[in-house]
Amino acid sequence: MNHCEDNNVNAKMVPRTEEEIESLIKRLRRIEGQVRGVQKMVEDNRYCIDILVQISAIQAALNKVGLNLLERHVNHCFAKAIREGNGEESIRELMDVIKQFSK
Amino acid sequence: MNHCEDNNVNAKMVPRTEEEIESLIKRLRRIEGQVRGVQKMVEDNRYCIDILVQISAIQAALNKVGLNLLERHVNHCFAKAIREGNGEESIRELMDVIKQFSK
Amino acid sequence: MNHCEDNNVNAKMVPRTEEEIESLIKRLRRIEGQVRGVQKMVEDNRYCIDILVQISAIQAALNKVGLNLLERHVNHCFAKAIREGNGEESIRELMDVIKQFSK
Amino acid sequence: MNHCEDNNVNAKMVPRTEEEIESLIKRLRRIEGQVRGVQKMVEDNRYCIDILVQISAIQAALNKVGLNLLERHVNHCFAKAIREGNGEESIRELMDVIKQFSK
């Protein structure tokens, strides 16, 4: 719990475990590689539809990471805020982010 | 038009201009940088909501690149296929990709 | 709170006020009218693009009602479940519904 | 083809067949019924999550109708416009509607 005193860690935040961080980084690196792959496809003048299929795969992967982060947030930080009576701001934040994703 | 004989260029493809390629690459590099930025945020144990806002920005940027590619495709390759009487396959391809994006 | 004993009211549910119900019904009636409007457009053989614009407006309206319901749910029923220590099922439910909407 | 002289039919429009109209109307009536069902759920003070699941089902059904209309449009009216050299306006229209749906 002394992670909470870490400067980089928001007070509202239940810190992620090593495993959680590793798993997220791994997925984000794969996404980074996919974005580079699309750059290569563009440089090689590859067919638009093939590039679009690839972009759509990146979006699906990003969406998964997003839902994963959201689930963890609701389970930990959000539930904690409600329990500690700091629900109001957390609810506003959560709804804002859900609205942004539902666009 | 002799780009069409290039191995990397699909016969169905009206090749992109230098400017088009450059502009796409520039946007994709920025997206790649944003994905690396999210990795850094995860490593720094940053607040979930802030990371989610960032991911949502990447999705919006990817969506713009996708729509840009789609618009160009419809304007060039797709219109060409219809004019040359090869519309059927092109329509199926186009609808498949639109369905994937509408998910 | 004796609404809670009402058969139609789920125990997990903080009952909606008269005003909330009225406002939701009003919006849903408007949506129902829009769906009937699209039927009329189809019967009149109206231009596809015009019908699609109308369908997209209905989707935006439904999305707004959905976000409104979700916001109220998070504010009331969900926060209550967390406070009462019944968070686990509520979190699963919430994430399931968010996943469905993000599709 | 004399449908084209019908006042209700846009000149850009390849008229729908009786079967196409019937099938669309049937699906839209079902959607109308689903919207009424949600009104009933709200009146009965039903649990938010159950209503949200229902709204998400309506959105999926509307999306299907939209994709169906879009496919038919691309196959008929759009392909016709391209062939007749009136592609420019049609492409703009199509992209506008795709952008609206991708929001």
Can you walk through the features of this model?
Four copies of one chain form a homotetramer. Helix content of chain A is 76%, strand content 0%. Chain A is built from three helices and no strands. Chain A has helices spanning 18-43, 48-83, 87-102. Chains in contact: A-B, A-C, B-D, C-D. At the A-B interface, helix 1, helix 2 and helix 3 of A face helix 1, helix 2 and helix 3 of B.
Gyration radius over CA of chain A: 18 Å
Let me know the largest β-sheet of chain A: none
Q: Per the principal axes of the C-alpha atoms, what is the gross shape of chain A?
A: elongated
Summarize model confidence as the mean pLDDT of chain A: 86
List low-pLDDT spans of chain A.
Answer: 1-8
Largest interface, C-beta closer than 8 angstroms, per-chain residues: A-B, 52 and 52 residues
Instruction: Please tally the helical runs of chain A, counting DSSP H or I stretches of 4 or more residues.
Output: 3
Look at the helices and sheets of chain A and give the structural class.
mainly alpha
Estimated helix fraction of chain A:
over 70%
Q: How far from one another are the termini of chain A?
A: 36 Å
How do the SSEs of chain A run, as a string of H and E?
Answer: HHH
Strand content of chain A: under 5%
* Number of DSSP E strands of chain A: 0
- How would you classify the quaternary structure? homotetramer
